[in-house]
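In the previous lecture we treated proteins in isolation. Real proteins rarely work alone, and many bind small molecules. This record shows how such a complex is specified: first the sequence, then the SMILES for flavin mononucleotide.
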Amino acid sequence: MSKSNLETRIGSVRLKNPVIAGSAEHLIDADGVRRALKAGAGAVVVKSTNESQAARDQLQQAEYAVLDDQWQPIPWNASAPRTAFIACRSGLTPQPFEAWLEQTAGLDREARANDAIVVASVILSDLDRAVVMAKQIEQAGLRVLELNIGTPYASQSAKGAVSTELLPERVAAIVNAVRAAVTIPVWVKITGQSERVPDLADAAFGARADAVVMAGRLLGLIPDLETCEPILGTTLGVGGTWHLPMTCQWLALTRSKLGPDKALIGTNGAQSGLDVARIMLAGASAVEMSSQVMLRGFDLLGQAVSELGAYLDRKQMSAADLIGKAADSRKTFAQMTMRQDNWRNYIPH
Ligand SMILES: Cc1cc2nc3c(=O)[nH]c(=O)nc-3n(C[C@H](O)[C@H](O)[C@H](O)COP(=O)(O)O)c2cc1C
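The predicted 3D structure, ligand included, written as tokens:
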């Protein structure tokens, strides 16, 4: 048991620890959410919903692959190496909205016994419908709404099924509409498929988002040498530990643009408690872990909390002390020491 203080704050929301179980297929069934809570996550973001039938169909068309460092598919289980590359298509929860809402609200009531929060999650399709859903989510007693406007898949999906919002003006309009409809905290999850992630975050905060989750996964295509076709037939959402530096970069740039008072949540590439620490040092107040939990099992969440605690004990820091420390000590290239002909040490002899 860690002696350090693991608590963190995301605006007005207190979490007992910064490890959030991020939305994916293992959080569709109530049982999965309960297992994530039992494992010790500070919060659990359930599998997302919206009104689109095409988005539901997309779940039934989904396929998942984990690849080794030779781009060879390997079994989807905890034996995958740390370097495993994850590639998939996904869709939205198969449940009708009313059933999803009842289940999610019930789970959030249960979560109070774990001193945790179950977060509702809506992926934007039609804005008016999203606003109505947000109101129903608040009325059902849920304490936090995550609004995902940055899925990787909009360009690949049926029109309007999901959104990849790339313009700050659009982000502002969407967040304003949802914000005006509810008083509960709204966490806005934005795309990483942009060179304007800090601008998108700025727009979300300008429209009174309580936190911004950054950043959504990228798209990729992996040719199969035997079939000469793309693996799993098409463009895929791609992720894995390799993505952690890009997540940290977006967090650091956003913190430097918007200042330390804006609550950022990291997603994309966390695999362990030490990764959670890394992403917090880059500016996150909490970190979502999604695909690695789907791959390796719910215990990973508890292990991440313990590993983070042990790290904090060793450093004699609290979780809150980590937030943005590396980001704030980031220097420019011009501030770096001159190292005469250092480059010669890095070319072939
Ligand atoms: C199979 C799969 C399904 C996902 N489904 C959702 C979803 O329904 N809603 C959502 O906001 N994010 C969804 N995500 C995105 C994850 O929550 C997360 O942001 C992303 O996978 C990057 O984090 P990770 O490296 O921890 O997986 C999904 C990701 C995967 C791999």
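Summary for your notes: DSSP finds twelve helices and 15 strands in the chain. The chain has one domain: 8-329.
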